[in-house]
Amino acid sequence: MSDKPRPLAGVRVLGVEQYMSAPYCTMLLADAGAEVIKVERPGQGDPRRSIGPFAEGESGMPVAGGFMAYNRNKKSLTLNLGAEEGKEIFKQLVEVSDVVVENLRPGSMARQGLDYPTLKSINPKLIYAAISGFGRLEGYDGPYSDRPAFDIVAEAMSGIMNLVGYEDKPPSWTIYGLADIYSGMCAALGILEALYMRESTNEGQFVDSSMLDNMISLNERMVMLYSVTGKEPRRGQLRHIYPRGAYECSDGYLAVNVPDNLIWKRLCETIGRVDLIGDPRCADGAARASNARFIDGVIETWLADKTRTEAEAILNERGVPVGPVYTAADVFSDPHVEVRKVLVEIEDPEVGKYQFARTPVVLSGSPEIETNPAPRLGQHTEALIADLLGYEKADLERLKQAEVI
């Protein structure tokens, strides 16, 4: 094992979490070395435990792939927060923890008497991160703050969905869960900022991660264009940059982007069309966008008899950045992905070895992430309550009988 320290070693996180956004947030923290305690309902747990696809091992017990992917390196503690004694145990855990992360429906924690003001009175140094559709911080609560939301709602209302797809087709979603994953990442960033700030103030704070806010920030180019030009970008149509898109080779597609005249000159020289460098139809990005059909034909003709690999090598060597449009199988077989260790292997005791995406940022002074599998429901309950709170065996037995744990 490496003797390098982990960035968040010594930080304890309570995750009152479900589905994707908060579990992804706490997974990032766990990968960085935090002790993440996933607080789940007895007998049920995170609903994602029962959502397919499922992996199945020799024991015949299926394990949900999505749950495996977002809950590695965590501990599972089952606790009935609807019971008074369950609330009391949670408050005791808050006393010895640094961070709470939750993505329940707005108002759920308050109805249980476990909202930020209550928990802050117990532990003033607590950092409480809430991921929601429309934001929850007092003073920033708007007319939508109490609404529930799924990722596609944030994509739609941020303007992103309106820009995905073709001009003559309805708006389209991007990838499943994008707003959840990005909001989890934004929440993790906010938690790190709050932890750093706590070093100087010795106080915790509320971290507010709104899916709508996050997706609007991700859609910054739309915001800039409308602010500067007063014009709305349109789905499937570029006005200021061209060519940009996926172009067909003999065995698949190649992604091409020409952001300026320098790259356009290199492209023209590479494909043997130097005559287009001074062509008025190609004078700048706006002119090329107006003549998109003509330019597409030129590029497609040059690519028609070349494989993705051949075209990629020729263009990249000439300073025209391109890349093949990968399928999942391509990603799993790519040698660069392998060298970068982008996919980590997790061995689950029930279903064996599978690969999942690693935390995206690598630090030179930190070891590779640990690869502990996602926990079984309630796997660490008794040990955590005994070790952290000093409960005796008889106490644990009584709590089980009362269905508190």
Short description:
This protein is of the alpha/beta class.
Report on this model:
By secondary structure, this protein is α/β, with parallel strands linked by helices. It folds into two domains: 12-219 and 338-401, Rossmann fold (3-Layer(aba) Sandwich); 253-324, 2-Layer Sandwich (formyl-coa transferase, domain 3). The protein has 17 helices and 13 strands. The protein has helices spanning 21-31, 65-70, 84-95, 108-111, 116-122, 151-157, 178-201, 211-218, 220-229, 261-270, 285-290, 292-303, 308-317, 328-333, 335-339, 381-389, 393-401, and strands at 12-16, 35-40, 54-56, 62-64, 74-78, 99-102, 127-132, 206-210, 244-248, 253-257, 322-324, 343-348, 352-357. The protein has a six-stranded parallel beta sheet, sandwiched between helices. α1 packs across α7, α6 crosses α8 (211-218) and α7 (178-201) packs across α8 (211-218). The longest helix is centred in the middle third of the chain and has 24 residues, at 178-201. The radius of gyration is 25 Å and the shape is elongated. The two termini are 34 Å apart.
